[in-house]
Amino acid sequence: MEQFATVMATPKTSLLSTIPSDKARWNVLAAEELDHFNMDWMGKYRGKSSCVIKPKSAEELSAIMRICYENNIAIVPQGGNTGLVGGSVPVHDEVVVNLSSMNKIRSFDTMAGTLVCDAGCILEVLDDYVANEGYMMPLDLGAKGSCHIGGNVAANAGGLRFLRYGSLHGSVLGLEVVLPNGDIITGLQTLRKDNTGLDLKQLFIGSEGTLGIITGVSIATPPRPKSVKLAMFGLDSYEAVQQTFRTVRKYCGEILSAFEFVDADTFNVVMNSKVQSHKNPFTEPHRMYVLVETSGSNKEHDDEKMQLLLEELLESGLISDGVLAQDETQIRALWAIRENIPESLGHLGKVYKYDVSLPIEKMYDLVDAVKLQCQKHRILGVSPGEDLVLAVGGYGHIGDGNLHINVAAKGYLAEVENALEPFIYEFVASVRGSISAEHGLGLMKADKIGYSKDLVSIDCMKRIKRVFDPKGLLNPYKYLPSRN
After folding, report:
1. Partners of residue 98 on adjacent β-strands
2. Right CATH number for 227-341 from 3.30.70.2190, 3.40.50.2300, 3.40.50.300, 2.40.50.100?
């Protein structure tokens, strides 16, 4: 911490005085433009940077990094700033390096399906681009309209179709990275196989901008499915959700691309939201809802599988009701219910978001436990006017055991946070889960990593950090414990 405190002392004045002739070329923003870059989209984390730089190439960023390294200036890399753990905004007055001006598609191999692009490219833009050639991006997020692929890789984002397409550790073929001292790793190969030495790119995938700043990405894109089916079911219990998942895997097999669940509290928040109007696909309420998506290449084959699945689920009584999207418009409408959860909750109040991995059979136990914990601390269930907590809901990716538990409150209040932490982390640790499934550690969970990782593993991570960033200049206070 002492080293970081020294580093933070004079970043803005040192950098701005060092590059007076390059402010325009490097797009150094004026003070009145900085609020957006200093605060995360939830309004929970806010920094005090007076210098935001938007380089247009790895070479420009390299020059900036060298100046910062020589002058002991701390840097925060920033993409679309859609993170949920405070990883992409300053803690104090660190210089912000925003990658939004690096947004070019460099190449696309239509034979191999390999895309090479700048880190600042928006995920949805990339998906639309490769769609024209019959491909798709291997990840899909609710924030796809604003998040950057570089940030996705830096956080190892999972998303809605992790069940089918897996982790970015498998999809990313190469990275271009600018190191804290300004050196550039030019590793944008597009080979599917490369066993030459250590696979350095894996260190940067999920490192949250603490080892280097990703400026270019080479990624494998899967063929776009010719047949997509989407169904939404209403169920009476979480046990029925688990049994339905087993049945869906049995009948859909290799074409299953997503299996999402949403509890009633979360579903109702979206239905009643003023953010966007949603038509409720069900006439009766249910305790749980699931979205099942299949993606294949043979429409008749996929139709048959889905029909057999529906017959089995109805005959077994696992589902109480269900709707099957008939066209692309209905598919988008059903997915919108799931994707608009974060924004709908945000309009209800300030939201405490916890992204965890648990054994599937334990996932909803945590939601129930958090509700009881809030009632025990008298912040929920007191009276509608006095409750500090407005809603507790759970939703997520059943296929990979990833639960998103959200607590909407009247504000970011000590009484609420003290009730939730470390309670949630202790619960996750007790079932050998992970406190960070796909959103990263950032500032929020840096000191909580011990709930998921042993001391030897944490020490190895710290040593790797010192190899790449011996001065501790890159995204300080994030990702790893600040205490030695």
Report:
1. 78
2. 3.30.70.2190
